[in-house]
Amino acid sequence: DTAVSQTPKYLVTQMGNDKSIKCEQNLGHDTMYWYKQDSKKFLKIMFSYNNKELIINETVPNRFSPKSPDKAHLNLHINSLELGDSAVYFCASSQGRTSGPEETQYFGPGTRLLVL
Amino acid sequence: GENVEQHPSTLSVQEGDSAVIKCTYSDSASNYFPWYKQELGKGPQLIIDIRSNVGEKKDQRIAVTLNKTAKHFSLHITETQPEDSAVYFCAASIVGGGNQIYFGTGTSLTVIP
Description:
The complex is a heterodimer. By secondary structure, chain A is an all-beta fold.
């Protein structure tokens, strides 16, 4: 069974569209994250949720909105997609109620988003 | 905030040789340093980590060293194998300072058979 899964794996869409990426973890972890990886492989955290509560919200456009219906799911909704949003988006999770950074983060396989 | 620099950006070695990746960090409060390996088409995976109260840690063919005074840490891979080819990321964070991990810019390692 996949520990952290994301759907879709590939997403090709037109500028201006709205799209969602879904993430689910079956590890029983309390904390989930979204990262963006650009074409140069640079990994940047976008959001972190602990037990459905937002705890990290980096400077990302408010077109990006995370939603956590329960602690096993963290979805990412993107409005009015722009060319610069093209990247690979990774979901991750870590264990523990406080989930300090020393908790191993388990990454999903990524969603490759291409905005045309 | 924390700034992590990583060098080199690309590295090619012959199979069996050693590979060394170096990172520096800016925030002296950082005390946890994980290393992640990202294979093609996959998400990053933790391969080893080190805390600031330890100077060196080894796990089979991989080892990490930390110099707190100089604020730099390194990943050493010995007896490299083709399956070691991947992108490696160093990272730094503060335990108890929230969940944020600051990643380096990545090193693309190619092991030539």
